[in-house]
Design a protein that fits this description.
There is one protein chain. By secondary structure, this protein is of the alpha/beta class. The protein has 13 helices and 13 strands. Strands 3-2-1-4-5-6-7 form a 7-stranded parallel β-sheet. Helix 5 links the parallel strand 5 and strand 6. The C terminus is likely disordered.
């Protein structure tokens, strides 16, 4: 019996979802990889803000090893990377440029960059910011896996020199997210870390409807919101909603709101992990408009699109209850068919197999060429 394939992931965090959407995406992915036979080691830099807010120290489907520095990573984990069947370096990894160099020099298998922040990454590269990825590292990976699809994939190959740019969208885990029973107590809710470019959308699509419906309850969950923000009395604030509470959080709302960051709206085809989580819970979703949304959910049937408070108000006040529930149910069916961690794991497995097969073919061609005695190899390429 052959040993299970070994996958090593160097990611931002899988143990803490505080202030990031990476952890829940990685959890669903490694669980899916485990189900199809992979043994995964997740290497995570031990950062104080995650250490203080750890909500999954032992996630299902993988082994986790925390490291304190780049030197410790190189000293303790070089052998696992060398023996792996595939290695993934994620976006926003601390000292990511140096980590990528280390992986490139150490791995003997296909390597991948998994960008869960593609629009932000591209904007930073354009500005000369190499906080976690340098442009010269991109061609060294066998493939650039992106949570943004569409035309951006062609740009990554054409302009940044990626060997291949492939979609690997965020996902959610249906085992931990299920529809709630009973009538929701809140009219509309939003879950997301604060960002300057998202807050105008939150103000327009949630705060303004809350002001117009003072008798209804609203909620905003997520960290890092400035204390000076003045919320209406009927908007509840929750600093952090742990993943184990997401199903209850979404289930408490008649509708849930998705607001997209400016860079992601500009590129389109960048679905948030929160979209898939809410759909898993059959929570009817109202989202801002962006190109490519129809690739993931059907507008009007599985998801509702809004640009103004008036549009949100019409959904809240005019859609019959049976249709509200039907929208959420249809979104969940679409999620179960296309957007689970298991589905993403199957995609990733296909990418790994293709990369390994290509590497094997190249090695075989080189070996055949070197052993063919009738082939004369010129000492100077100019002599050919």
């Amino acid at each position: 019996m052959s040993a299970p394939p070994r996958l090593v992931v160097l990611g931002l965090s899988i143990t803490s979802s505080w202030g990031n959407g990476h952890a829940t995406t990685y959890r669903g992915l490694v669980r899916g990889m485990s189900r199809i036979g992979y043994r995964t080691l997740f290497l995570e830099r031990n950062m104080p803000w995650y250490e203080q807010n750890r909500d999954a120290s032992n996630p299902v489907g993988c082994e986790v090893a925390l490291y304190e520095s780049l030197a410790e990573l190189e000293r303790l984990h070089a052998e696992e990377i060398r023996r792996a069947d595939a290695v993934i370096v994620g976006s926003y990894v601390p000292e990511g440029v140096e980590v990528a160099r280390f992986v490139s020099a150490t791995a003997r298998c296909p390597t991948f960059f998994y960008d869960i922040d593609t629009p932000v990454t591209l904007a930073r590269l354009a500005a000369g910011d190499t906080e976690y990825l340098a442009a010269e590292a991109i061609p060294r990976f066998d493939a650039y896996l992106s949570f943004t699809g569409g035309p951006t994939l062609d740009f990554i190959e054409r302009e940044l020199g990626a060997r291949r740019a492939l979609p690997l969208f965020c996902s959610a885990d249906p085992d931990s997210l299920a529809p709630a029973q009973g009538m929701p107590a809140r009219e509309l809710g939003y879950l997301g870390t604060y960002s300057d470019d998202r807050q105008p959308g939150v103000n327009e699509l949630l705060v303004e409807p809350a002001l117009r419906l003072p008798e209804k309850r609203f909620v905003v969950g997520g960290p890092c919101y400035p204390k000076e923000i003045s919320w209406p009395p009927n908007v509840e604030r929750i600093e952090h909603v742990a993943p184990g509470e997401h199903a209850r959080f979404y289930g408490s709302q008649r509708y849930t709101l998705n607001v997209t960051r400016a860079d992601m709206k500009r590129l389109g085809y960048s679905p948030s992990v929160r979209l898939f989580e809410a759909a898993a819970c059959a929570a009817p979703i109202i989202t801002d408009r962006w190109q490519g949304i129809e690739e993931f959910f059907e507008p009007g049937r599985e998801i509702l699109l809004a640009s103004t408070a008036n549009e949100v108000m019409s959904f809240l006040e005019e859609i019959p209850e049976h249709e509200r529930r039907a929208i959420g149910a249809r979104a969940r069916r679409r999620f179960l068919k296309e957007h689970t961690g298991q589905r993403r794991a199957a995609q990733l497995d296909g990418y790994i197999r293709a990369a390994r097969s290509a590497a094997t073919r190249i090695t075989a061609r080189v070996s055949t060429f070197k052993s063919h005695e009738s082939v004369a190899i010129p000492e100077n390429p100019g002599d050919a």
